[in-house]
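Regression test case RT-17, inverse folding.

Input:
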């Protein structure tokens, strides 16, 4: 095993770390106290700086203006940018656009690539991904009510979706719809590109999540598709292949998320250690002198290190043997890292006492917004059930002494 990081990547990560520290973290108090929309012009300025530094769109294809880093390299980038809630956004590699870029690159027609992929990678527009429905379980998306029915040269879409993240202000949605109701459950759905200014694309509301509806990129919308008509040329990939394409989107996407969460862990851990070092808890004694705090610090350090190596290994597996053969590793990291992050953020917040609950530190923001990590992209329980089944299959007929 080789744990070395190339010189190129060391340089890139050092530049990103410095940018996050100097240019982004200072914006956080304003981000938390005022509307996120107020900061959009500032984020634009930061994006220009990132482009000038040639660090834009690190994981996206070179021919569309990205840096073309591979998955292992981007994993390290994602860790660095994850320290701030808008690191990925400012560097042009934020979800859900990152996943949409991947599938447009893999499955889009030349026309779709010019119209949607190019401006998306360039950061001129944003997009969203609309699969989860209000009334049906997102954990079992073959149960889906939204339909697209062919009419002349068009598809006519009807249905209700929610948790379409970042739909507010997006130029288009990639929508998962039933196109082939009679087919095998996994071949019933397709992905269709729907520009958000299409009549019948109705953004009903930004859903309040943990007490905050958010806005623009930082929001999750409910969308009502009402006789929403788009040309059949907007079909992404083949008809009935929606779930096949979704699988492609999820493997690398989980690496990006998990390493972003490791970045959050690192930030929370730094804050925890600094607070323990500085907080005088009795005359001449800091919190850092208390064994229970020392124990948390040691446990968090071990958990973060274990989680980080697991993610890097899963990324290595995806690159070397492919997403299909790396399914076990991908499921393991998804629930493992989400829980490690929750634990680390919780302990860091606890060490800060009342200060941890305020927005004077980033911890309360992470605590609110990152709880969702255990739900989206497959809830903990779904991954645990699926990975346990996979492991148990390996024991069928196997002699164990
Ligand atoms: C912040 C956030 C952002 C999101 N962004 C998007 C997005 O951009 N686009 C999009 O389409 N969707 C998005 N989602 C939706 C997300 O994918 C779904 O919430 C998720 O798939 C779970 O579906 P559900 O909410 O319908 O819960 P359900 O499917 O109803 O599941 C509820 C709970 O049941 C349990 N459970 C489910 N299945 C099993 C099982 N087999 N065994 C044991 N227990 C089980 C789990 O504890 C699960 O949490 C987002 C969600 C959140 C919270």
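Golden output:
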């Amino acid at each position: 095993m080789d744990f070395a990081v190339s010189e190129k990547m060391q340089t890139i990560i050092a530049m990103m770390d410095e940018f996050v520290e100097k240019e982004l973290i200072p914006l956080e108090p304003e981000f938390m106290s005022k509307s996120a929309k107020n900061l959009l012009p500032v984020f634009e300025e930061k994006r220009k700086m990132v482009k000038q530094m040639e660090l834009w769109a690190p994981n996206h294809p070179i021919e569309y203006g990205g840096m073309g880093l591979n998955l292992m390299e981007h994993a390290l980038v994602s860790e660095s940018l994850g320290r701030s809630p808008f690191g990925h956004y400012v560097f042009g590699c934020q979800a859900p656009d990152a996943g949409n870029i991947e599938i447009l690159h893999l499955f889009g027609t030349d026309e779709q690539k010019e119209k949607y992929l190019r401006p998306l990678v360039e950061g001129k527009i944003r997009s969203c991904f609309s699969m989860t429905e209000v009334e049906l379980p997102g954990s079992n998306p073959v149960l889906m009510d939204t339909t697209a029915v062919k009419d002349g040269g068009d598809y006519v879409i009807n249905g209700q979706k929610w948790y379409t993240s970042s739909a507010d202000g997006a130029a288009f949605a990639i929508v998962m719809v039933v196109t082939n109701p009679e087919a095998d459950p996994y071949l019933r759905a397709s992905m269709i590109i729907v520009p958000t200014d299409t009549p019948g694309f109705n953004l009903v509301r930004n859903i309040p999540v943990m007490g905050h509806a958010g806005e623009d990129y930082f929001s999750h919308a409910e969308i009502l598709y009402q006789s929403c008509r788009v040309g059949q040329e907007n079909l992404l990939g083949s008809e009935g292949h929606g779930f096949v394409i979704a699988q492609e989107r999820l493997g690398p996407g989980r690496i990006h998320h998990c390493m972003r969460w490791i970045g959050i862990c690192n930030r929370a851990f730094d804050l925890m250690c600094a607070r323990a070092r500085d907080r005088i808890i009795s005359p001449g004694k800091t919190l850092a002198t208390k064994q229970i705090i020392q124990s948390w610090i040691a446990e968090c350090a071990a958990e973060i290190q274990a989680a980080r190596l697991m993610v890097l290994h899963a990324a290595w597996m995806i690159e070397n043997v492919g997403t299909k053969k790396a399914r076990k590793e991908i499921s393991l990291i998804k629930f493992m890292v989400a829980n490690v992050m929750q634990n680390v953020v919780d302990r860091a917040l606890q060490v800060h006492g009342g200060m941890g609950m305020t927005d004077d530190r980033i911890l309360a923001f992470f605590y609110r917004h990152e709880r969702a990590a255990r739900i989206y992209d497959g809830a903990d329980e779904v991954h645990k059930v699926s990975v346990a089944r996979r492991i148990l299959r390996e024991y069928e007929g196997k002699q164990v002494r």
